Amino acid sequence: MHEMGIASSVLDAVRAEARRFPNGHVYKVVLRIGALAGVDPDAVSFCFGALVLGSGLEPLALEIEYRSRQHVCAACGRSFAAANEDSACPECGSADAVFSGGDELEIAYLEVEDGAPAARA
Amino acid sequence: MERLPLERKVLSENDRIAAGLRERFAENDILCLNLISSPGSGKTSLLERTLESFDPSERVAVLTGDIQTENDAKRLARSGFPVKQITTGGTCHLDARMIEKGLAGWNLECIDLLLIENVGNLVCPSSYDLGEAAKVVVFSVTEGEDKPLKYPSIFFKSQLMVLNKIDLLPYVPFDVELAVRNARQIHRDMEIVRTSCQTREGLGDWLSWLARQRKKPRAAAPVS
Q1: Structural domain contains residue B201
Q2: Mean pLDDT, 10 residues at a time, over chain A (121 residues)?
Q3: Cα radius of gyration (chain A)
Q4: Fewest CB within 10 angstroms: A67, A103, B184, B219, which?
Q5: Cβ contacts (< 8 Å) between B188 and chain A: which residues?
Q6: pLDDT digit string (tens) for B81-140?
Q7: Worst-scoring range by mean pLDDT, B2-16, B48-62, B77-91?
Q8: Looking at beta carbons, which residues of chain A come within 8 Å of B6?
Q9: B93 touches chain A (CB under 8 A)
Q10: Which domain holds residue B151?
């Protein structure tokens, strides 16, 4: 529901990083979204596309790295990517697991073409 | 082509402001709690009962968020404690900057407990740190028992779950044990209290939890 704000924050981060590459061009930003981040990847992409137009940062692509929910098995302690809330442990088959992650909302990396980075401010 | 790792949270600007708030709360020894629930789960009623229970000499303040209207602030202001409404105008959550603005004009040295009532929404508020010491999720028995499974993020990040409206249990097909089991599947160590703001059953448990938090030393780092 706040995807426009998310897209705008991503663009701000790219803009700040782009200043370090006055002779280069940031052409891709990779955003990591967890299954439980409460953020719709399609809506973020849509908003991002609209914000990039006329931003002076074009061409700039957004790639989304989707991360599934993570569980820790209560029986054997194995961490695993779970398809849903009642996924069984791949190690021991137990359905007794606790949620441990998959709610990330992070900018993973940028892809930059040419130009050495200016010194960090 | 060069790959430039950032590994930065998208909401790092919000987190930066929240860290500043958390520092100010620690300096002034303020316990700040962020109450989150679906619309209509009883956050405002819970706060009304909470404020009623305090002696007027207590140094308590409330920030209450809604998309529109000052209704909640008006209800809560009857308690006599300082209350400010944050009207977001459409935004579905409170963010740290709104809290910073909401606090403007208040002398933090005169506050010991700051209660924040977030906008009724179980999704977006879970992403925004407000500088609170703990998030509290309010979940009422007129909702589905599977709410923790449907909205795991907020249950995972909350230190306490208040299962509210228990006076309605005789009239609704709500399985308390199943709801608690679902909540524990998401957050095994979450504390849980059961309350009714109508009969006042269980409010003592909520107030004792609150009293225990007020005695804890204030952490400078975020608690999720």
Answers
A1: yes
A2: 86 90 90 89 94 93 94 93 88 89 91 66 41
A3: 18
A4: B219
A5: 98
A6: 999 999 998 888 999 999 999 999 999 999 999 999 999 999 889 989 999 999 999 999
A7: B2-16
A8: 13, 17, 106-110
A9: yes
A10: 13-215
Q: Which two tokens stand for residue B198?
A: 């109508």
Number of domains chain B contains: 1
Is residue B10 pLDDT above 60, yes or no?
yes
Q: How many CB atoms lie within 10 A of CB A116?
A: 12
Answer yes or no: are the C-beta atoms of B137 and B160 closer than 8 Å. yes
Distances (CA, A) of B11 to A34, A73, B103, B160: 14, 30, 21, 24
CB contact under 8 Å between A38 and B127, yes or no, is yes
CA distance B189 to chain A (A): 10
Kindly determine whether residue B7 and residue A38, on different chains, have CB atoms separated by under 8 Å. Answer: no
**Contacts with A103 from chain B: Cβ below 8 Å:** 126, 152-153, 156
Picking from A11, A14, A25, A36 by the largest number of B CB atoms within 10 A of its own CB, the best residue to mutate is A36
B224, part of any domain? no
Would you say residue B3 lies in a domain?
no
Q: How many CB atoms lie within 10 A of CB A56?
A: 8
Interface test with A, best of B1, B3, B4 (most A CBs within 10 A): B4
Instruction: Tokens for B75, please give them.
Output: 């209800």
| Bridge partner list, B193 | B162
Partner residue opposite B9 with nearest CB, options A39, A106, A110:
A106
User: Which domain CATH number covers B167?
Assistant: 3.40.50.300
Provide the 3-class DSSP secondary structure of residue B145.
coil
Percent of chain B residues past pLDDT 90, beyond the cut = 84
Interface contact flag, B127 A31, Cβ < 8 Å = no
Domain ranges of chain A: 3-68+102-113
A69 touches chain B (CB under 8 A): yes
On whether residue B223 sits in a domain, the answer given is: no
Residue closest to B111 by CA, chosen among B214, B4, B1, B10: B214
Domain formed by A3-68+102-113, architecture: 2-Layer Sandwich (3.30)
